[in-house]
Amino acid sequence: MEKLPKAAVFTLIGLVILAIVIIKSSVVIESGQAGVLFKTLNDGVDRENTYGEGFHIIAPWNDMIIYPVRQLSVSDKMRVLSVNGLEVTVDGTVWYQPEYDKLPYLHQEKGREYESQILAPAISAAARSVVGRYTPEQLYSSKRDVIQNEILDEVQKELSTQYIQVNRVLVEDVTLPPKIKSAIERKLEQEQEALEYEFRLARATKEAQRQKIDAEGKAVANKILSASLTDKILTEKGIEATLKLAESPNSKVIVVGGGESGGLPIILGNQ
């Protein structure tokens, strides 16, 4: 077998080295990611630039550290104390993401483990601070939305200089000790029954008032009607009724001015 010429060997070696350099120098940053460049032979982290999605060529002795920069979430169950010292469990989720323009600072000052080193302690401290302002009853019944917003405010303040953006906090569940939960449920049930009783009582009172007003109105109407029915009016009404009866074919005899009807006509002989 013939030996390769020295020029061919050097060319082959050069191509291999070039391929290695190209592979080492080529960086592809995927969608939803960003990169931080570490310059090994220079000043370390490039704090001035955040490298976005796409293909990048870097010096083979440098390194590109890639971070996810789309919105992320972390869920946890935290045991915290209420205002009266009772332990409750808060089950929540936090949505967050690194600040894109500050990613080099985040990498240099906090590192790749920033979620466990910075974010988680801030969430835990905020939850303890906020939940500690409320009683178990408030936590169980009506304060969940308020708690979410207050925890969000606390976390955002804590991380405002940490290059982490917190977008939302969701409190999914608040678990109380079984005895406390049962006591609160009984109290809420009793309050609901009391409200229902008050509603029925108020409705009955209004109905009684309506009936009283209706009866008083009828009494006034009857009083006015009785006062207006004089003897003369009654006599005229009786004459009108008698005339209508006289027109009937069944009427036989009409006696005018008889009986005890105050002089009203009397009809006899009806069949």
From TrEMBL:
Q: Which Pfam families match?
A: Band_7
Q: What is this protein called?
A: Regulator of protease activity HflC (Stomatin/prohibitin superfamily)
MF terms (GO), sorted A to Z: peptidase activity
Instruction: Enumerate the transmembrane spans.
Output: 7-29
Output the PANTHER family linked to this UniProt entry.
PROHIBITIN, PROHIBITIN 1
Which locations, inside or outside the cell, does it occupy? Membrane
An example GO biological process term is: proteolysis
Q: Which domain of life is it from?
A: Bacteria
What broad class describes the main subcellular location of this protein?
Answer: membrane
Which of UniProt's keywords are assigned here?
A: Hydrolase, Membrane, Protease, Transmembrane, Transmembrane helix
- Name the species this protein comes from: Nonlabens dokdonensis
How does the entry describe its membrane topology?
A: Single-pass membrane protein
Does the record's keyword annotation contain Cell inner membrane? no
**Domain Band: from-to ranges:** 25-188
